[in-house]
Amino acid sequence: MKQGIFAAIVAAGLAFGPAHAKDTGLVFVSNEKSHEVWVLDAEFNVIKQIETSRRPRDMKMNDAQTMLYVACGDDDVIDVIDIETLEVVDQIPTGPSPEVFAFSPDESRMYVSNEEDSMLEVIDMESRIVVHDVPTGAEPEGVIQTADGSTVYVTSEVADMIHVVDPQAGVVTDNIIVGTRPRRFVLTPDTNELWVSAELSSEIYVIDRDTNEIKDVLEFLPPGFRPEDVTPVGMAITEDGSIGIISLGRANHIAIIDARTKELQDYVLVGNRAWSVALNRDESVAVVANGLSDDITLVDMESRRPIRSIPVGRVPHTVVIDD
Amino acid sequence: MRWFLAFTLWCALAVSAGAQDAREVRLGFLALENDPRFDEDFAYARIALRPQGDTVTGVELAIADMKILTDARGFEVTLDEASVSEDALVAEAERMIADGAAFIIVDLPAAQVRTVAEAVGDRATVLNTTAPEDDLRRSCIPGLLHTGASDRMISDALVQHLARQKWTSALVLRGKSERDMARAAAFAEAAERLRIEVVETREFDLSTNPALREENNIMLVTGGLRDYDVIFIADDYGEYSRYVEYQSALPRPVIGAAGLVAQEWSWALERYGAPQVNSRFEDMSEDNRRMNWQDWSTWVAGRAVLTAYAKTREDSVEAVNDYMRSHRLSLDGSKGVPMTFRSWNGQIRMPILLTTSNAVIDIAPIQGFLHQSNTLDSLGQDEAEFSCE
User: Fold this and answer.
1) H helices within B41-177, ranges in order?
2) Cα(A211)–Cα(B362) distance, rounded to whole angstroms?
3) What is the pLDDT of residue B268?
4) B367 touches chain A (CB under 8 A)
5) What's the whole-number mean pLDDT along residues A115-124?
6) Looking at the partner chain, which of B12, B16, B376 has a beta carbon nearest the beta carbon of A214?
7) What is the pTM of this model?
8) How many Å separate Cα B87 from the centre of its chain?
9) Every domain of chain A and the residues it spans
10) Given the DSSP bridges, would you call strands A77-82 and A140-145 parallel, antiparallel or unpaired?
């Protein structure tokens, strides 16, 4: 049964492939403690383990899908992996302990949270010069940029705040106080919302981007778990803005919700300390990195069931899919 | 399947930096001049048997960590720090209150915590950071909170590990000091709860006196009795215990004061943002020293007070106190779970690290040890078994 579902997904993936010649279908997983990016093919077979600088965490692809950027926290660089050769071809120096980053819409700039010195660093991609160092609360983590490039949001895990940053001026224009240990963001495509996960108060804050006011606070409780087990971190939203996926950390589940009404649809069991989550392009499969069981879980988005889990390196952090 | 959608407005504040007039928050920090617990004399050969260094750095780190948040709420945080002789403690606490401190963080032995907290009464909240005595918690002094772990919590953490490993019997060794008696008693209580058998409790002696060889010779102290799985040592000075490993009559692991040590914090914790806390602390401390459990306790005390100030919507001290003691606190101590204060004895709930000299072996509550309301309450005296004395 499971095999059947899986085969169908693979077939769908392959059928989708030829329309986008560049799309390799590769799945990249960064592993914080084994200092590698694992590469899986479209059928989720491990095909390569790319050695990176130490402690690879957040990863982003450029728009052209030719390069994968990997923030390496213990070597203070962003490694650049060529997607064709699957080799590290370049490094961008950053401040101490880069954790999460985002590109400006034209990819001329990069916004990096530096966990150790509490800065949001704005780096010019061509000259590789730091254009701005924006001071944040301690342990900045999640970074996201609005599609129009006008605003960057960054969380401070210790100060329980979202800083609203004007990236041109390099200044904080507003602060939003949220729950305990805010981690990651997603932006809704159609409702002008910013979602932020507050790991230790077990909440998702839904913020109105016009007013910076908190609209909703979402809480989750999969059956058999305690509220304090629910430590949400990673999130994903479908391109049409209809479905949201939230990883629930030590509650070992993801929650799938209606992104507009916030109505819960399903809880799906995944691995231990479900961490970051990514959707493939046709949104048939969600890939969840499990930080404490050193594996990734594939979730079939139609049946809402886990397909299988695949062992990866030590402490998987982020999943990026090139399809 | 339960689903909550909460429109909680208490936290819905979006404030711009510096928009309000600065209001002062005074934090008191009171310590004992020449605290015997930090006495270096016991350390031979320059081996630091006890954590050294000024725990006020933990509070300073908390203030620095929270600055951006307290700034945004328009608070100006002032640290009123004093280290005085035993006789001057109460007067100093009174002075802090007179100067406007509503919260006093104390790094004091249990007897002095009691004296200060009783003298202060309900005029200020006293946060005990480094006195682990369960007696102090059972006294139920109003206005006294505890951010360090109790002896019982430390013992429960060790005993959970024993139970999980199926190490079901222990030899208990203890020194002659009151601290050692308290810790050994807490271990016995914890062992009883999880059915770990204490095969014998023996007193050790830190001497080479041949007349006391039954107490000071490690082979004799650990031998001449039936088999056991593990040796638990209560040794506050730390001098005797560091010689027990590898010298016991039976090849058995040592826990408690040496070997596997349960404590609030370790520099070796690699998860939950702990490395960042450690490096911020090292940068801030005078000699770039590592953060000890005492420093973690003062850091958490500072964070608890400042978080409550920043997140309460009302500005009264009562509202700050209410917030701090409520479930809404959800304090992050960089140990992966939200922490709150127990309503019945003012003790903060926390995970306890099981540490060796360079590793965190496990974090209690250990997986599988459950509790009807909060697994953190499997550590320490639970509400049902607790009564004020």
Assistant:
1) 56-72, 89-98, 110-120, 134-138, 151-165
2) 44
3) 95
4) no
5) 93
6) B12
7) 0.86
8) 25
9) 1-53+230-323, 94-219
10) unpaired
